[in-house]
Each structure stands twice: as C-alpha cells, then as structure tokens.
UniProtKB/TrEMBL annotation:
Principal location listed in the UniProt entry: cytoplasm
Enzyme class: ligase
Domain of life: Bacteria
Phylogenetic lineage: Bacteria, Bacillati, Bacillota, Bacilli, Bacillales
Source organism per UniProt: Virgibacillus salinus
Full protein name: Phenylalanine--tRNA ligase alpha subunit
Database matches in NCBIfam families: pheS
An example Gene Ontology biological process: phenylalanyl-tRNA aminoacylation
PROSITE patterns membership: AA_TRNA_LIGASE_II
C-alpha cells in the first residue's frame, strides 16, 4: 500500500504541473482527493492492515494528501494570476478617453421653497422648531381651542390611529408644545415647517399629505400691525417688490381676530384674469391674533401677553411662484418635472 500511495502522489503532482487552467486543476483535485478519488479509495482498504501497519500507512497517506494539496494551491495561484493578466490585457482602459457625464441631482422644489422661507424668517429673528407627526388629540385640537365636539373640527378630516392619537392635521401643535415648554413667561418667536395629513381626495389642488409652515410670535404688546408688516415683507420677498397685499376678515378657532392675506395677481396686475378668478387678488395664507384661550391653556397671562400666528402651504407658494398647475407633480417623482427646478430662482407668475 505504501508503494501505491507513492505512485498516486507522483502521478498527481505530474498532472498538476501539466494543468493549463483552473478547471483542469479542479478536476485533478476531485480525481485524487475527492470522495471517490484515488487516495480515498486506497485509504478505505486500511481496515485490512494489521495494527502495526495502520499508523505507518496513515502517516504516509497524510503526507501524500498534504503534498498534493500544497502543489494544487501553488499552481492555483499561478493560474489565477495568469488569468488576471490576460483579462487586463484584453480589457485595458484608455485613460485618454473623455469620461461619462455624471447625472447630478438637486434639492426638490418644495425643499427649496421651505428653505427660502426659513431663511427669510430666521433673518427676522424667528427660530425653526419641529414636532412629532403622530400627535395627540389634545395638542392637535384641544390646546388650540378646539375641544371635543367643536364644529370646527369638521374643517379638518383627520386620520385617527386611536381615540387620542392621530396624524397631525397642521403644524400648530408644535406652537402649543413650545408655549407649554416656555411655562408662560418667555417670548416665543418661531416657525414650524413639516408634513401634515388630512383625509382628502387627491386632485390638482388637494392632497392627503402636504407641507405647512406656521409661525408664532408671543410677547408683550404684540399687535396686528406687526403681523401685517411681517407678512407684507414675506410676500414681497417671495413674489417681488411690486406685489400688493391685503388682509381680509376670516375665522380660525385659534386666532381672534382672524384674517386671510391676498397678494395682487402678477398676471393681470390686479385687473382680473382667469388665474385670480377675475378678482385681481390671490389668497396665499391665513393668520390672526392668538386667541386668549390658547394663551391661557399654554400658561400665559392673556392680559399681559399677546401674539400673532400664521400658516401657509409651501405647495401653494411654489405653485404661484413657478406656475405649477397640479400639486401632484410635487409627489409623483417625474424627473422631467423635477429637473426644471434645480436651484430655481425667480420665475414668478
């Protein structure tokens, strides 16, 4: 059996040297070292040997296996390197050729609008604050003067998770949380951008998910004229210095008095057209003086502190500023639409 093992070793090493590729090398490994290989077949006959012969033959068999394995590994490294060299020769890269252009993305139009509005209000001393999108009924409604059963709740069809948890219908809860955090004795001057959700049928001007930016300023001696001045500056910054603004009486449960702000139509210069529905004005946001009840629930003394609040939709601002006629364009991820507004500047109606 010793002579048989030495013959297998010599034959295997000779075949390894003659192998020209990795496939032939693998076949050799299976032929000699596999489960049905020559070496394995010989070792199965060790049971017929005497107790004295088995250790001797076993040691020789291990040396044969080790010799064949080492030779195969060395040959494998040589063949792998040769295959790599050949591949590099056939796949050489001409570094003098011009490179392929890289498609560069950019901020979404809504992101640009939100950041532009944030920059404007930060420049006027406002800070940016955020809050949870899954909100409690208390902060979404009750803390904003909308107790359970209040008819104004019907103005906002709500996605309820439980009786007390919901997807926020506006970003006003961030204002209520901030006032509560300040314990009713600090100035609040903030804006809160974020996503909001309402049960609505999606069409050209409505979406069940959209963004809002709301602002709040609470301090001593805050007046409606302060609100008018800040919103007028905002409108001129976003739509041009030639825009006129006006405030109209309105109703919101959390402000009293409440107003809606219009800007003069750029298309017709206020004379009336299809864009402004012949009125010469376009509504862009709502606001008003913070209701005393809202201040008191947040811990503020409504006889000492006053404040104003306002809210706007970045989608509506973007549609007016850049002439977008369908709100769904912001969410369908059509690259043809999005490419038009990379780093958008100007472009008002």
């Amino acid at each position: 059996m010793k002579e048989q093992l030495e013959a297998i070793q010599a034959e295997a090493l000779d075949n390894v040297k003659k192998a020209n590729n990795l496939k032939e090398l693998q076949d050799i490994k299976v032929t000699y070292l596999g489960k049905k290989g020559s070496l394995t077949s010989v070792l199965r006959g060790m049971g017929k040997l005497s107790k004295e012969e088995r250790p001797v033959v076993g040691e020789i068999a291990n040396k044969v296996r080790e010799a064949i394995t080492n030779e195969i590994e060395q040959k494998s490294e040589i063949l792998e390197q040769a295959a790599l060299d050949e591949k590099l020769q056939h796949e050489a890269i001409d570094v003098t050729l011009p490179g392929r252009p890289v498609q560069v993305g950019g901020p979404h139009l809504l992101t640009q609008i939100v950041e532009e509005i944030e920059d404007l209000f930060i420049g006027m001393g406002f800070e940016v604050r955020e809050g949870p999108e899954v909100e409690t009924d208390y902060y979404n409604f009750e803390a904003l003067n909308l107790p359970k059963g209040h008819p104004a709740r019907d103005m906002q069809d709500t996605f309820y998770i439980t009786n007390e948890l919901l997807l926020r219908t506006h970003t006003s809860p961030v204002q209520a949380r901030t006032m509560r955090q300040f314990n009713g004795n600090q100035t609040v001057k903030m804006i809160c951008p974020g996503k909001v959700y309402r049960r609505d049928t999606d069409d050209a001007t409505h979406s069940h998910q959209f963004t809002q930016i709301e602002g709040l300023y609470v301090d001593k001696n805050v007046r409606m004229s302060d609100l008018k001045g800040i919103l007028d500056k905002f409108a001129k910054k976003m739509f041009g210095d030639d825009r006129k603004t006006r405030l109209r009486p309105s109703f919101f449960p959390f402000t009293e008095p409440s107003v809606e702000m219009d800007i003069s139509c750029k298309v017709c210069n206020g004379s009336g057209c299809s864009v402004c529905k012949k009125s010469g004005w376009i509504e862009i946001l709502g606001g008003g003086m913070v209701h005393p009840r809202v201040l008191e629930m947040a811990g503020y003394d409504s006889k000492e502190y006053t404040g104003f609040a306002f809210g706007m939709g970045p989608e509506r601002i973007a549609m007016l500023k850049y002439g977008v006629d369908d709100i769904r364009n912001f969410y369908t991820n059509d690259v043809r639409f999005l490419k038009q507004y990379h780093h958008a500047k100007g472009g008002t109606l």
